[in-house]
Amino acid sequence: MFNSTRNDPSVSKIVVVATFIAALMISPLAVAQEHEHGKDSAASKEVTGEVVDMMCYVDHNAVGEKHGQSCGAKCIKSGGPAGIVSDGKAYLVVGEHKPINDQLAEYCGTSITVKGKIAERGGIAMIENAEIVKK
User: Fold this and answer.
1) Radius of gyration over every alpha carbon of the chain, rounded to an integer in angstroms
2) Which residues of the chain have pLDDT under 50?
């Protein structure tokens, strides 16, 4: 039967420990796969709104074509964060793990449609893997 005074590990203990270690090794892979940024059309949404330079928009509500084509486009081309404002909600707009400022700068102050995955956290909304929808 069961001998509780034995000092060598039993087979069942080894199996439990090995399974636990394997689970710990595999779990980061599962999390990484869940975080994958593939272009899943089911998760992709379109947003239509005005392209803004987020620094001026957040600081002093700078919108419109006059600001967009003077200051806004320069800020976006210089690497400032670009966004889109739709129905009073502002979204940070980024490409696939990189800014798409070069593409958005020419539209600053005008209305366009972008398509991408919507993500929100801590009061900040973002459209990632964004692409401009040509109409």
Assistant:
1) 25
2) 30-34, 37-42
Q: What is the model's pLDDT at position 32? A: 47
- φ/ψ (deg, to 5) at 77: -65, -30
Residues 128, 122: Cα–Cα separation, whole Å = 16
Q: pLDDT over 70 for what percent of the chain? A: 75
Q: Looking at domain 44-132, which of 2.30.29, 2.40.50, 1.10.10, 3.40.50 is its CATH number?
A: 2.40.50
pLDDT of residue 23: 67
- Check residue 6 and give its pLDDT: 57
Domain ranges for the chain, please list them.
Answer: 44-132
Q: How many CB atoms lie within 10 A of CB 72?
A: 30
Phi and psi torsions of 51, nearest 5°:
-75, 130
89 Cβ partners below 8 Å, 6+ apart? Answer: 125
- The two tokens of residue 24 are 């710990």
